[in-house]
Each structure stands twice: as structure tokens, then as C-alpha cells.
Design a protein that fits this description.
Pfam families: MscL (PF01741). This protein has two domains: 1-48; 51-124. The chain contains four helices and no strands. The protein has helices at 2-10, 12-47, 62-97, 108-123.
């Protein structure tokens, strides 16, 4: 039983997943700080304080929901424009720098079938 547990923990994908979760948490802190400390004050400077938490519709705290939606939109935009787009550009450059590999040579059976097809076309 313990050996199976040890084997489970030592599989590569479990370790990769653990590293991804830890890095994701750290990256989330960086993105949240970017939004809270950089982007939100910039938005506030342009259009006033972006806080809707006081808006209520009866007992429903609608303003908090609006704040959460705006926070999500700003976080998504920050991740897209500051992380995804630059990474795509880097990947395109790296793919362009690599020389395209020649297509693999077909197996002997395929070569033989092509020769037979050519002979049949000549006879037709």
C-alpha cells in the first residue's frame, strides 16, 4: 500500500501539477497587485474612484457584484495584454528562428505503391 502511494507521488505529472499550483498562486498575487496597485488607481485618476460597493437594490448588494465584475475584467485584460500577447509574440519568433524540418521519408511500401500507381497511369 505504501509502495503504491510512493509511486503515485513520484510520478512526474503529480510534481508538475504541484509546481503549477504554487506558481499559479504566486502569479495570482502578482496580477492582483498589478490590478489593485497600478491599474485601478490609473482608472480612478481618469474617471473618478471606481468603487460601486455602496450601490444596493433593496437588500441585494449589487455594487459588490459590479466591483467583482470590473475586477475580473481588469484582471483578464491585464493577463491577456501583459502576459498572453507577449508570450505569443515570443513563441512566433522562436518558431520563425527554427529551420523547418524536412518531411519524413515515406516507408518503402508507400514508395512501392506510388511506383505502381505511376505505371498504371502510364498504361491508361
Amino acid at each position: 500500500m505504501w509502495q503504491g502511494f510512493k509511486n503515485f507521488l513520484m510520478r512526474g505529472n503529480v510534481v508538475d501539477l504541484a509546481v503549477a499550483v504554487i506558481l499559479g498562486g504566486a502569479f495570482g498575487q502578482v496580477v492582483n497587485s498589478l490590478v489593485a496597485d497600478v491599474l485601478t488607481p490609473l482608472i480612478g485618476a481618469l474617471g473618478g474612484v471606481p468603487d460601486f460597493s455602496a450601490v444596493k437594490l433593496g437588500p441585494i448588494a449589487l455594487g459588490k457584484f459590479v466591483n467583482a465584475l470590473l475586477n475580473f475584467a481588469v484582471v483578464a485584460a491585464a493577463i491577456y495584454f501583459l502576459v498572453v500577447t507577449p508570450m505569443q509574440a515570443v513563441q512566433r519568433r522562436l518558431k520563425g528562428a527554427e529551420a523547418p524540418s524536412p518531411p519524413p521519408e515515406p516507408p518503402e511500401e508507400v514508395k512501392l505503391l506510388r511506383e505502381i500507381l505511376e505505371e498504371l497511369r502510364k498504361k491508361a
